[in-house]
User: What shape does this take?
Amino acid sequence: MYPGTHAKSQPHKPAFVMGQSGEIITYGQLDARSNRCAHLLRNLGLKPGDAIAIFMENHPRFFEIAWAAQRAGLYYTPVNSHLTTPELEYIVRDCGAQVLFTSEAKRELSAALPDGVPTHRICFGSAAPGFIAYETAVAKLPSTPIADEMEGTDMLYSSGTTGRPKGIKNPLPNRKIGTPPPMLLALMNGMYGASPDTVYLSPAPFYHASPLRFVMTILRLGATAILMERFEPEEALRLIDRYRVSLSQWVPTMFIRMLKLPPEVRARYDVSSQTAVLHAAAPCPVPVKEQMIEWWGPILEEFYAGTEGNGSTSIDSRAWLSHKGSVGRPLNCEIHVLDDDGRELPAGEIGTIYFGGGQSFEYHNAPEKTARSRHPKGWSTLGDVGYVDAEGYLYLTDRKADMIIRGGVNIYPQEAENVLILHPKVADVAVFGIPDEDFGQQVKAVVQPAEGVETGAELEAELIDYCQQHLAKMKCPQSVDFQAELPRQATGKLYKRLLKAPYWEGHSTTLV
Assistant: This one.
């Protein structure tokens, strides 16, 4: 199961459609192009187990590179397209990439890399000094498979929202080409009902784990993916309507932006073709999910997992309605909630979440980070905090690094964020701790106002009062600052450390 299979039986079927431009790539085209790229990689000297990096926006040629690496037995690392040159350099060096693929839009940043980092730089579009012109390089190469096809795999990096990104490198799969990862296939084909007839909408960045892996699985199944170059709330609804999308995957910030569209705009589009709507990456505020279920029906499927792949949970809408706020029960793993001394806590008590019995992982070139993620019993953690109820359903309360300790009391900023994001004058919000001489920390909110909203002391007082109507006063911000745009990834992850840093200058703390 891979594009080569479907190119033989249905070469003219769309493998994917670029949402905003409408460009269609068929299975025949995807197969031929990825074969040519695989030949190019072999000609450049790459052998199974070697690595490449991909640094580009949601580009129509992205997945032919990914499939070329996948069928050439390589590691491929998609790099966050919003990174600076020094951040790009760190990942290219760390993952050991011998080739960097980039686009015209990202060529200037790539050109600023030091000489020889990496050995080969390949750019789509017009030729440029220091780059191999992709179209010219592959023009005369065969469109048939390389002789030694074998399955490669992605090597992804954590989002780096609390420090430098960490690479997760697993052994190459010992599978012949066309053999899909069993867990992903079980999820997409089994639990979520994906089939060759599925039309899948992906509104998220390709460099993120879930969109990348889900689209690759959709292409294994012979289904069609609708890929958004960038998320726009009304455009997403238009694409669902236009292509009769049956399966889609989102992050909560996307739900929030769609729910804040005027009612007449939301009513303009028919979204009834959807049979399953997946969401993950961040906890979804309960009122937001309630509104989405009311709008789209009880078809929301939530999952919780990390790029590390050490464990996951899942919950459908019906179970969620009786366990509101939960991210579900474990899939092929166990959940252990531990206190700061590493002792297991009973149901209902908050602690650090560990997974047991799942896939093992290591952080590439970072044995100390790997060691910090482990419990003596072999369990591993992503650093999230939460609890399980008596029925075994998991609830997330926050990341351990983001917890506020005020006068010895633990405060989870996610609670205030979930309240404030629902205010009509708030487009985005971050809550975190800042220094306080008397109590150690106080609660600070930084708000991105909705379009056209005037900021100042009056809005600050209004938001604090609004929060206190819904939460205990100690959990609410003592002050609110305003910022035109928060440093949030398109995946929904917030670079909270960038917001915290100015408040902690001159104070002894580690923002990791």
